Fold this protein.
Amino acid sequence: MLFLLAAHCLAVLAAPALVRWWGRDAFLPLALVPAAMAAWAIPPWISGAAPREERHAWIPGLHLSLDFRADALSWMMVMIIGGVGALIVAYCARYFDRGEPGLGFFALHMMAFAASMIGLVLADNLILLYVFWELTTVFSYLLIGFDARKRAARGAATQALVITTFGGLAMLAGLVLLGNASGTYRISEIVARPPGGGAVIAALSLVLAGALSKSAIIPFGLWLPGAMAAPTPVSAFLHAAAMVKAGVYLGVRLGPAFAHTIAWGPIVVSLGAATMVFAGWRAMRETDVKLLLAYGTVSQLGFMITLAAAGTRTAALAGMTVLFAHALFKAALFLIVGIIDHSTGTRDLRELSGLRHRTPVLAGAATVAVASMAGIPATLGFVGKEAGYEAFAREDRFLLVLLVAGSSFTAAYGLRFLWGAFARKDGVPDTPVHRPTPGLLAPPVLLAVAGVALGLAANVLDAPLEREVAGYPGRDTYHLAPWHGFGLPLWLTAGSLMLGGVMFLAREPLARTHRRLTVFEPAAVYRAIMDRTNDTAMQITGSVQRGSLPGYLLVIAMTATAAATVAAVAARPWTRHDGWLLWDGPAQGAVAVLTAASGIAAVRARNRGATVVLAGGTGYGAATQFFLHAAPDLALTQFLVETASLIVFVLVLRSLPMGFPVTRPASRRAVHIVAAVLVGVSVTAAVLIAGRARTAAPISGGYPGAAAETGAKNVVSAVIVDIRAWDTLGETCVIALAALGITSIVFARRRAGYRPRPPQGRGTDVWAVEGFESLAELDRAAPGRGEPDWLEGGGTLAAERRSLIFEVVARFIFHTVLLMSLYLLFAAHSSPGGGFAGGIVAGLAVVVRYLAGGPYELAAAAPVSVGTVLGTGLICTTGTAFAGLAWGGAVLKSTLVDVALPVLGDLHVPTSLLFDVGVYLIVVGLVLDVLITLGAEADREAEAPEAVAS
């Protein structure tokens, strides 16, 4: 199963390239991927194969693993997602225009959503299920907001994201509570041995919030109609066949264990029945046929969730049948609406007229799909609805009445859809239409026909669907069949159809009554809540965010100091210490004194440049302490980081006055002095106490042995890329985000990128100094006298800024320093170094080129984009993580590969080396980003301030 998901992810990554090469026709080969998933699921689902399980270590230290389980329910969901999804993806090949902008990313998001849904229904771990759950939320947001130029699309995407994320966060808390109460996070084990107690009731309530929000059940149902701003294929896939079914799936998955608890059955059944009735009534007043189907979808989801939560085997069987039928008829109807919109340019039923005569095949497919939705005999929808009536016929008559009322609305808005979309209306001219192509017609026709074929073959579906609900309590003997005779369910079906016909005939009075009785619109309530939330957030932000960086630092420092003080007073760790150890030798004491003096001098300095240099001295002092403490790897990295930091400070200082403000209130100075003293005292005390009050043996004692297992001789390197690789992976992501943050701030008004190539010739005035014009003109007037261009960008500098010695040295040492950085990278397994240190050294080599040749030299020294470097680094780190899962059985698991070379001899190469290469590239990318944004871009702004202002 993990292999299948990985293969699906490869298709996700290939989608943009395929669209770039083949255009919209790329959707045809992409459709083969979900079709293959459906083909994988059909045989075991039909044959009743035993469940298949896979388990892969994820984070062993936290007892997290990638648990997958395929059973009858999972196979059916994969079959629906893959089969219906394949037809919808193929439909996209003719739905979109040739040259549609953004189609590559649309294909990527569509395939990624399908992979996330398949992962969700195969997950057998609560945390893994939540990860896939949130991935569907993210990709649905991107799909709904596909046309970002439209405000309606952006608003609908944001609304869906806010509501479903709210439910998802609540569900995460519930899943954690449920896992802790159960003693396991495996879903199959929880269902087999369900826990009890108050914590479980709270957990189920939170989980239900996520399930109900995803399936658009009251009070979360407003996001789905708004999401109709998405392209029609998105509506057909997400809101008919896949995403909205996630809540129903979760209800059926956990139902056998918890359906009879007070936090599950009664609440969900009540909300589901109410949703079915109210959404069906709301659909009767819609004039947009797509919105009509959207409210119909909400109504049908209420029906499904009611059946799934009822707690009986027959009700669950009916729920699964309706889920299957709904995926077929509702996807077909959404695709038909897409064809209508595509062919006529409108979805307003008041403007559509005469399409039945112009597009008879489309009208026929719509009629068949509506018949299944309304529950007319010989369709799969009828089989499921009849089973639902049977489930409640002898238990809850009031609920049965609500279901019949909801079904009546279904028949009514189904007839209204057919009349509005295809009938010829008095006073409305026939709508101009161009005939849809076979490629557009085929998917909805196949889906509609499948609803009838499976309805007639309901006996074949009985056994597979029975296996899905076998865990529900009871000994119900009901079986699916296309015909059960003239019993109560059939008469209820006939009654709901007749009542629906009456409501269709009285559709205008019903719509007027609905408008009069409507006290508020849910969308208006949502907007009011969001507006009030935004206003409150702005008020709070305005009161605490004053734009003062010293103020922010003061709050952070004092909060940390207060927290540490309270913890220390409560724990009294000083009572357990066995003496003070200030230093190991006099050299450490001397360095500490010099470091403190540098820090005091930095505070006393009145020049920003001097402050930066003196503050850097404290960092070099810390690096010296590492060296004296026999930690050369830490010392090397600290020296390099401090050097890079000084360069960043210098680049920033070019845009600031060298002196500090002269006047500062005495009260502010006093507050800062007191805060600094308190922070310093608390940090010093914490270090002294923590170092001598340990109650357990440090875990570092096991590092040498763990490093030996990886084949590394350098313990620090083994810790970074093997033992604590998860920490390193997170830190590299933070570095990449920092680079993106710097770029987004500096390039707020224009697209980021390198400066253009310098013009041919010499003697430009980059970095010119006022008052040296005569020297520059002399250099231009006598080009034969000028020094040679040792660097490509050197000729662009003003003459007074050029240094022949610096340019020669920069050219000679550049490649040597790069080789040194590569040595640090590859030698880290057995000596000091690593990807972080090597990346800084490589970045410093580029810094030298920039300082010697100016901003144009930066493009020559590193002729690649920062995004490419950072992206390649992230691919290396994450790729190594998943490779460890595939070959080593755990994420980030390192393997030692022995390679015998003829001349070099035997090489022992750890797979973690690729991880270190990723760290190297990410650090290099960060340095390049800093040079481009704070260096070259600052130069551009200084040389052309009018361009920046524009």
